[in-house]
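Annex B. Sample input.
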Amino acid sequence: MPFGMFRSHYSPILADFGSSGVKLVQSTVGDLPTISAAAFVPFNDDLRSRPIEERFEFLSRELPEVLRENHFRGSRLVVAPFSQHMLVQHIGVPSTEAERAEAFIRLQIAIGLGCDPEALVVRTNQVCETTRDGTAKVEHISFAMSRDDVMRYVDLARRTKLNVVGVHGEISALVHAFDHVNRRGEDDNIATMYIDLGYGGTKVAICHGAKLVFAKSITIAGRTIDTRIAEARRCTVAEARTARLAEGIKPMRIGSPAQFAPSNSADGGMALLRMAAAKAESDEAAASNGSSVAAIATDRRVVGIAPALGTAIPTDAPRSVSTEARETIESLADELSMCTRYHGSLYRDRRIDRVVFLGGEARDTGLCQSLASGLRLPAKVGDPMARFLVNGAAPKGLPDPQSSHSGWAVACGLASSPTDL
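Annex B, continued. Sample output.
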């Protein structure tokens, strides 16, 4: 048996359950974390349209072999559940109920759902004090999940010889993916809008530095757009998706000096990046307060540039979106604008400084350009995976390792999420 001081340490297995499939990641824990294992278990079009129980059955058969083939280690599992299993809601708690805010929120959600409050697992995030209808209230973001749904993931893990040690909503996880970018005190002055463009839904988070102050799930997403195109062109949804991505994608590669650092070569850029990362992490270790998370959150900034924030969305020669999808995309843009207005009502003296697009649908450059134009804010396509890949080679199970991985934000964020189940 190797001595403990030389033993490698790994995060739990991190699983993001999405409408297109399950993304699996495991990272090393240390000063310069890497991705030690990764895999994607896709759902075909037929399985996506079937009851969710059939997806669990499929995963119970597939996961053991996938984990073995891709060299995942250990039995601990942290989960970001399917979005339909997690309710996200802003609730104003009267100041008179502040001391029992969680119980008050649990009751309000239970009344809305028509269920027993004890049947829910609820987590709350206090935002700010506000006034509604002349009543002083404290704004909270609530994340609620039924205990029965939690047990579905526990049971799936048991069947695959794993042990669930954490369950976190997609929005919470994608915010954690940028903890290392927002760890300085002055970062609290920067308001960032994260937009996770998924196939089954769109998740929105607005943060002041690392603090989450707004969250919402929107039903309009990639599938909504493809369905509209399929109806107009009289083709299948799969054919519409293929055509849309072919028309809208502008490949974004990783590892170039222009993306990460001012250098004339990729090797030079990587060298500068590692030097800055080492210094930043040395400073962070000296100031550490000893708190523990599943993986060490580290800073990858060089001359003010964070690789996780990805690449700027090109504004020259913007790509047009499908005529058939324009109305749907405008509806999504309207929903996003309402999010910014709600944030403005909570923080009248704060404006949103930047937008970071994430999710699998962020590969559609035309879609991102259209949404960024509607918001009238500077925007990038994020890549939280970049901070891991600069420290080591990508594992064999990571799809297209030389490309940007905006769709892996939730899985990466789980690495910095607490194991508190």
